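Write out a record, fold above all:
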Amino acid sequence: MFIKYLTVFLVSMVPLVELRGGIVMAVGMDLDYFTALVVCVIGNMLPVPIIYFFARKVLIWGADRKYIGKFFRFCLEKGHRGGEKLVRKAGRSGLFLTLFLFVGIPLPGTGAWTGTLAASFLDMGIKSTAAAVSLGVVLAGLIMGLASMGVFSVIGL
């Protein structure tokens, strides 16, 4: 049982897959949903401070490197676009709510990694970033859990 929870924990840390994949995997493994949600949220949030403090610096450093530059520039542009999109939608005063919804609505490219990178580009502050992203990750976990259990098909969505 420990190995299954460790697996969903590690899957939740992976960029692009994140908690969304971990929750679906946990439901598929028939793990206790609420325990799995906590494990996946912790796994998804563990990289947030590292992303916030170091990702932009590493991406800037690697953007002009021969072999990795193209990928690093892509990530920088994605972070800039994400930050600009958040500001366009909410202005500076509504960033917390917008970041929460950006991370919380489980669409491709809108998870904790992208949200945290965008927040770091906007100099949002680690405390508000961590709070908004944490709440968004929990919301995404609830939505993905309900979707994985077929709740939305029962109510006709």
